Amino acid sequence: MLENFMMGLELAFRLDTFAMMAVGLVLGMVVGALPGFTTVMAMAVLLPLSFFLEPLVGIPFLIGVYKGGIYGGSIPAILVSMPGTGASVATTFDGPALTRKKQPRKALEMALFSSVFGDLSSDVITILCIGPIALIAMKIGPPELAAVLFLSLIVITITGGGVFVKGLLMMTLGLFISLIGQDPIGALSRFTFDFFAIKSGIPLLPMLIGLFALPEILLAIEKKASSVMNEKLDTKAGGRLTWPEFRRCIRTMCRSTAIGTTIGMIPGVGQVVAAFMGYAAAKNASSHPETFGKGELEGVAAAEAANNAVNGPTLVPLLTLGIPGDNVTAILLGAFVAQGLRPGPQLFSEQGSLVYAILIAMVMANVLFLFIGYFLVPLFAKVVTIRKGILLPLTVVFAFAGSYVFRSDPMDLIILVVFGVFGYLAKKLRFDVTPLVMGFILGPILEYSFGQTVTMSQENIVGYIVTERPITLVILILTPVITYFLWRKSARLRSAYGVSEG
Question: For 322-328, what is the mean pLDDT?
């Protein structure tokens, strides 16, 4: 692992990598600053651009969009009390109050510095943890992998953003859709009804763009396409953040970073819960809790450090086991697959230096993040005033163009529209589509691993697991226990921090 790390260090320092990360950060911040335009939508629409770049350029570009988008959501949250992303909801508790006190610049800089602090710290922890976890992952065989994948699907479903039954239904639908096409073991066609266009299965890219981008566009069209701020706002009012003010918040940022990093390693919980937990912990630990909600810089620091600390650790289950923990990592998985790289234990053994190069580039992105954010915050603040009527048509064009360019197959546009309409209806009915995507992505791997297990067991699968695969047996026994514990914990967290259950 050390050798791969050193080789990755050499690969990571490339001018084109840094240039595309900077572009991704700027695009992410712009999208995050637009209320109603989510980071996931931006990544889904921009995903096809990464296909024309090397993996060491294209994937860091998407990671830049991710990082920039999470921070960008804090800009409208602070200026006009409208979070650009769900991750910035907790920032509205103190950000707008600071703006009303004529201190918007201080609030924006506090959000930037705490975001970079949380993101950078969690990225370093990710690099330290991912190697040992990958070594363990390389030791597991098909039975253990099948058990882990089954447990992961259950965990993603119960920790998702909706009602458990709805999530279970969507996951089952995703598993069924993954069966369309060829059997991974026998190469027999299934559920294609002799329709040639889907004999090789449903393509991942149009599905991702359809489920994550088109519904957001349709929902935005439903609302009045106008700017969210009519009055002129001076983002330079109140002066800059001072060192004593920043130093006072360091302890809070460290606490929130620890919370966000832990949350990031749990599939499906995400930035929203992390931000609320970080804010609540800061308020409880404060000697002056009465100032929270009235324009307290520590409140902004707590929320932003926590939600950005989630970013790096979400890559741990993705890169080591090939299991995306949320919709963002599902899109990143699509980028890896399109580049001919399949995340999982084999990726580390075959392309370990490339993985570490991407992770090191992710750490270096925080330096760019700091400089770009510091000097361009006033520009990003003006983005809040852009009319949606100008941006929505361009977003639609990018969504359709991105779906078509990868395979140049008109059928992909039909699939895009079908899943776009389905995703829109699912959102209206308060169904979370993330379990569907996870079921679709992990279904073929689960089926193949289970098929290998059946073959290895010589049709005596129970006896084989009990006598020869004790780790698999332990995982299967613990699955209902872990499921119940996480269901109770997730329900309690979402109830305590006001996250909708559907």
Answer: 74
Measured CA to CA in angstroms, residue 22 lies from 27, 134, 189, 305, 368 at distances of: 9, 29, 44, 21, 6
Question: Is the CA virtual torsion 46, 49, 53, 54 positive or negative?
Answer: positive
For the record, the structure tokens of 436 come out as 């569907």
Those residues whose C-beta lies under 8 Å from the C-beta of residue 205, and which sit 6 or more positions away, are: 47, 48, 334, 338, 402, 403, 406, 412
Contact between residue 272 and residue 499 where contact means Cβ atoms under 8 Å apart: yes
> Kind and range of the H or E element at 182?
strand 181-182
Residues 108, 95: Cα–Cα separation, whole Å: 8
Closest C-alpha among 89, 64, 66 to residue 76: 89
Q: What is the pTM of this model?
A: 0.74
310, 299 contact by CB (below 8 A): no
| Residue with tokens 């959102």, as numbered in its chain | 427
- Residue 482 corresponds to which amino acid? I
DSSP state of 240: P
Q: What is the mean pLDDT of residues 337-358?
A: 82
CA distances to 103, 109, 282, 365 from 99, in Å: 5, 12, 21, 28
As a whole number of Å, the CA-based R_g of the chain is: 22
* The dihedral formed by the CA atoms of 440, 199, 46 and 25, expressed in degrees to the nearest 10: 40
Q: Over pLDDT 90: what percentage of the chain?
A: 14
Gap between the Cα atoms of 72 and 328, Å rounded: 16
Q: How far apart are CA 159 and CA 266, in angstroms?
A: 9
